[in-house]
DNA sequence: AATTGTGAACGAATTCACAGCG
DNA sequence: CGCTGTGAATTCGTTCACAATT
């Protein structure tokens, strides 16, 4: 992107890397905790530790937002909270609907971290007529028939799909047709959506499978190590650490707590 | 990884890229669906479409596992299912414990995709004595006091944390001390673990915040587009398509369905 | 003196494009 | 002839290391 030698990109240049965006919520959470403890400033080192990343990465991330720190001192906690919130669009209100009020949908509806960050559960929707009217987390469940009206009345642009896999695409299509442009999908299916609609996926079984892969690899390495004792040279290279275990550093993905 | 010019990595070389590992479960799901419909073979193009990735990526991914396709024809569905399952370690049984049986823990316990893929819920654990003995998803909840014994008796190496944030690190420490080496964390906290322990994180509020960011960006662009009509030149560069919308392609992260 | 902000080096992941093979 | 498998080119992300700044 050019050397930007001209004057200065004033505030920020636009085009924050996706990887950085994915970490901003992490920083925000750590900062909020500091803010609650009335800590006035943090260094990149401290904040990075709290967020579980390394400090160079954090500084580079912040550099995409602008120059919000003070050399020799660190970052002003309140100010950064505000800047990141604004960057993420959390200074505005985001009404969301949750479709599919089973165990998971109920868990999501009850999740406190929602309201705390600009998100507001505008409605709960389920296809089961028996659910209609029953309150979950204090909000009465509405029937799927009302979906379009609900989206429209509340100006909802973010939808959460917590239905069984079979119903997901259909629900998705209706959400999109009704005007939703961001979807968080908990159903184990690939959703197809038109351009301009964002989908993020959260899939337990995939995460477990990834863990199983690493778990298996560990077991294999132990075996190799044991074998190395008893007998001659083992083919595997080991000792190179494989680059894969990365320490306690968080990974790429992420989504949702109790 | 050196050029590996020596002889040949025989089956596979070791060191499958992390990004590839994260996609294998996706391919596996698509393949399983095909298998159930008794489809005998697929081309990289078809399978890629079903998994929501592009075909070059899929072929490159498979190339790390070995040469399991047939040129001019495609891939044998059953054979690939087996190879990927084996690679992911799903041909063995993985007992898991779920700690924290609130709404979310219950949702996880009830999640069917578990058993289907080598995972078996060995126990449900909760700190609330009132929960003890109550069956959830047909499995009686046990008290946290039993944690170490349960891990040990069942040879559990994978733990799922679905507790409130405040309890997560403590639970984590106990799991690790008891021998768990892979953790799936649903609590909104950064866990610190010793080397050799893998942690994956699933965090709803983070995913929503990422969606909000993109949602906001869309709104901004609309506004900019509208503004471009009315008045003079706008500062922002636009038209460069920003690289960020990537189309309907899935994103990086992932985790869990109803 | 301490800590940010950032070019530059590096490494990982994706995409291209085509040779190789069935 | 069609489709896989893969080097080479490219893009994206991380880390290094240090000059700039308070």
UniProtKB/TrEMBL annotation, chains A, B:
GO biological processes: negative regulation of DNA-templated transcription; response to redox state
UniProt-recorded name of the protein: Redox-sensing transcriptional repressor Rex
Compositional bias (Basic and acidic residues): 239-249
Keyword vocabulary terms for this entry: Cytoplasm, DNA-binding, NAD, Repressor, Transcription, Transcription regulation
Family according to the record: Belongs to the transcriptional regulatory Rex family.
Binding site for NAD(+): 100-105
NCBIfam families found in the cross-reference section: PRK05472.1-3, PRK05472.2-1, PRK05472.2-2, PRK05472.2-3, PRK05472.2-4, PRK05472.2-5
DNA-binding annotation, residue ranges on this chain: 26-65
Subunit organization: Homodimer.
Xref: HAMAP family: Rex
Residues annotated as transmembrane: none
InterPro entries: CoA-bd, NAD(P)-bd_dom_sf, Rex_actinobacterial-type, Rex_DNA-bd_C_dom, Tscrpt_rep_Rex, WH-like_DNA-bd_sf, WH_DNA-bd_sf
Function statement: Modulates transcription in response to changes in cellular NADH/NAD(+) redox state.
Chain intervals with Low complexity compositional bias: 222-232
SUPFAM superfamilies: NAD(P)-binding Rossmann-fold domains, Winged helix' DNA-binding domain
Localization per record: Cytoplasm
Region: Disordered, residue numbers: 222-258
One term of GO molecular function: DNA-binding transcription factor activity
Entry's Gene Ontology cellular component terms: cytoplasm
